[in-house]
Here is the input.
Amino acid sequence: EILMTQSPATLSLSPGERVALSCRASDSVISDLAWYQQKPGQPPTLLIYGASTRATGVPARFSGSGSGTEFTLTISSLQSEDFGVYFCQQYNMWPLTFGGGTKVEIK
Amino acid sequence: QVQLVESGGGVVQPGRSLRLSCVASGFTFGSYGMHWVRQAPGKGLEWVAVMWFDGSNAYYLDSVKGRFIISRDNSKNTLYLQMNSLRAEDTALYYCAKDFGYAGTHFDYWGQGALVTVSS
Here is the structure.
């Protein structure tokens, strides 16, 4: 099983700041990596797949990078609506696995 | 627009069974893999099972293998999860999720979830 580790666990930032969330895989997943955002009481929504491709309708301030075992989700200028928990997920190997999440709080 | 609506959740005693359903609309159901993903209260996401677009194959999380059965009826646009021998650690919100492709990739649409509570 591929273990996905996200850091930091929590971030508290001000609107307009640049945010970088990290996701590390215990083994290479090539570029088979997706990012999701989850707000309280709602299901996750897909942000990024293929490590760097934005899903339909996702604002350009969200970008993904990395390959192999190290990945980053960047929010270029944090907006108030970007609060929530961000999860990474690998789909290179069964079972599909998620990281533990990074909670982004808006100051 | 794509809609996934789960039903069948509830409170059940350990060792008993429950069947979840997920009715899909807004896309060609029989062309996509479908998954169940769960989230324990206040916890992260855990993939549970997948069924191939045509029902030809399925994979399971090790901890549910032999207890849970995923199935689908493409004529009814419906995905199922039969959960047997339930344990306290199966307590979670169970999401139905559409695969981006025919089977095991990522999830581009999610339902609102069905809450399963296993408690005596």
Remarks:
- The first strand of chain A starts at residue 4 and ends at 7.
- Chain A is about 0% helix and 50% strand.
- The mean pLDDT of chain A is 96.
